[in-house]
Amino acid sequence: MASMVVIATTAVPDHLRGALSRWMIEVTPGMFVGTLSAKVRDELWNAASAVVGDGAAVLLHPDDTEQGFTLHTAGQRRRRPINFDGLTLVAMSPLEPQHPDTTTDESWPTDW
Question: Could you tell me the pTM of the whole model?
Answer without folding.
Answer: 0.79
